[in-house]
Structures are given as structure tokens and as C-alpha cells.
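Model it.
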Amino acid sequence: MMNRPAAAQTMTLPEEIPGDTVVTAILPAAAYASDVGFLGSAIYTRFRYHPLAVPYESMTEVRVQASTKGLLDFRIRHDMTETFGSSIRSFWMLHGERYPNENYFGIGNRTPFDDDKWDDQYYFYDVIRLKAEWSSRYNLYQRGRRGGRLDLKGTISFSYQDPDIADDNLLGSGNERPRGSDGGWMNTIGTGLLWENRNSEAAATRGNRAEISFDWASPWLLSDYPMATLSGDVRQYVTLPVPYFYPVLALRMAGSRAFGSIPFWEFPHLGDEYTLRGYPQFRFRGDAALFYNAELRTWVYQYHPWALRIGVHGFHDAGRVFHFDDGDALDDIFNDYHRTFGFGVAGSVLTPDFILRLDVGFSDEMYRIYANIGYMF
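Modeled.
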């Protein structure tokens, strides 16, 4: 079932799912993730497809999660590619969670790590987060209905953090606690440009994507920490001509730079399922972060009547942060990179736009297991 040319493996509209179709699923899921323990989830998804809407007309996801280490997580996401009949694509999200094992290792690219302190919970603290976000994309240029497009982005978000600081952990034991230790509101507006030229947003086999964005936390939005962040993200996808498997090489380079009164939880960071897999969450924080990811993906089994796919992938991640108070400079851009590697499995059913993923990443300090929705990029 997998001895097919690369283009046929994409499973995109209109071949696999006819127009004017609604695909709904309720999926119970159980997994293990290193930072939260054994995880139970209930996920509701609803995709509405129409022949003239790419990649779909609308998508709704509701997710509820709880874990043996005390994680409680609830989120709602909704994506409309044509908002109220207009050419504006809009996305909104509501998210609330209690995260029991957030990490703080200090600020900088060379912060120390000790196995005994890790076992004694020295780097850990509890946090409650709330966030509401709305973003939109307005098309500035379109090269054919399914060709490349350039979009203008706009975003507004309101988020709140309440860290639980203890005197026996790193965050609370220092002589001077970092900015943001008392929590507070981070309310932002943002804009940016997005170039999209992939043949699939969920599992691209060819094409590219590039984004640049600027976010500003303004006092007149009642943000407790006036700051700004400039970010960039470039991705490329190539199908390799290897018979039978036709693997996809996915490449990404991304970075960000923060300015202003930055709370410690808003510093650009590395170390999670979206940056360096294999390091603890938020292992490195700094004024700026630069990283790249490389993945080799292939589907090893497909059953088309159910749109069922099972795949495997291997990856390599690398990056570093810059903390200019420590003497870092842009001259260090090619030095002191942290590197990780690993492998994972992915699967989808009923629709090719909904993918479940499990990764195992290895660093020079430990290994980490991640369970998430969708490919990393």
C-alpha cells in the first residue's frame, strides 16, 4: 500500500476527501511524556471541507488532558479559512492549564545542570496559565488557487501567569528573584508577513514556508511587562526519490529576539517539543534564541478507505540562546550550539489533517518523551 509515487502519498484534497464533507472524531488517548508523567486525553475534532476552501473550510479542536504528575489542561481552537464569507482567515484559541513541573535553570546559554538537583526538584516550580488569542491572515498575493501566497498577519492575545515560587527551588532561592516571579499579565498585539507554498499544512511533501512577526506588549493593553519580540521562521520540504518509501526531508531554521522589560517566562527559549527535543522544558533562556531542526519522515502503512496512515521519522535539532548581559555577542552565532537527536512515530485516521505524534529525544543531559498533535513543523 505504500509502493506509490510521492505525489500520491500526500492524501490532500480533492482525491481523498470529497467536497462539502464534515469529518468528526472523538479520540480518547493515553501516553507517557517525561515532563508530566502518564497522560490521559480526550480530543474532539471537526473538519469541514469544501472544494473551494484550502486546506479546509473550518477546523475545531477541543482537548482536555490530565496526568499523574498533576497536569490539568483545557484548550479550544477554531480555524476559519473564510471568515463570514470574506477572504480573511481567522484563528482563535482559549487555553488554561495547571503545569506542575515547569523548569527554571537560570538565564543564559551555559546555565549549569546537576542530576542530583534535578532529582530533588530544585529546578521545578508550579504554574497556572490562562490565555486567549485571536489572529487573522489577509491575502496580499496569490499565485493560483493552490499555489504560493503572501499573507499579512494580525494578532491580539491576553495571557496570565501565576508561578508558585518555593524557597527550596532555584527560582525562589536566589538573592534576587528574576523579573516575573510574581506573575502577571502579558497582553500583546502583533503583525507580520507569512509566505505559504506547501502542498499540505499538516504533512507537507514539497514546498516552503517563511514567516516574520513582531509582537508588542503595550501598557495601554494593561500588560504588566512592556516588551517586544521579533521572530522569524523558514521551512523547506523535499521528497527524496527513494523507491517504495519516498521519504520527506523537512528543514527548519527559526529565531527570536526580545526587547524591554522581559519577565523570565517570556524570554526566548530552547528545550521542548517545538525547539530542542531531548532537553528539559525551558532548559535555556536568553535575550535571543536561534535554532534549526531537520526531520526525515515517511509513511510506512496506509489504508485509504479510512484515511489511515502510520509513519516514522528521525530528527536532529540544534540551537543556542544569547544573553547579552553575560557577554554574548552576535559573533558567537556559530559557537556553543546544543544538539539533540531522536526518532518518533506519527499516525492519522479519518482525515489527513489530524496527526498524532510521539517523539523520543536525546541530549547530553537526558532523554525526553513527547506526545503531541501534528508534526513539529
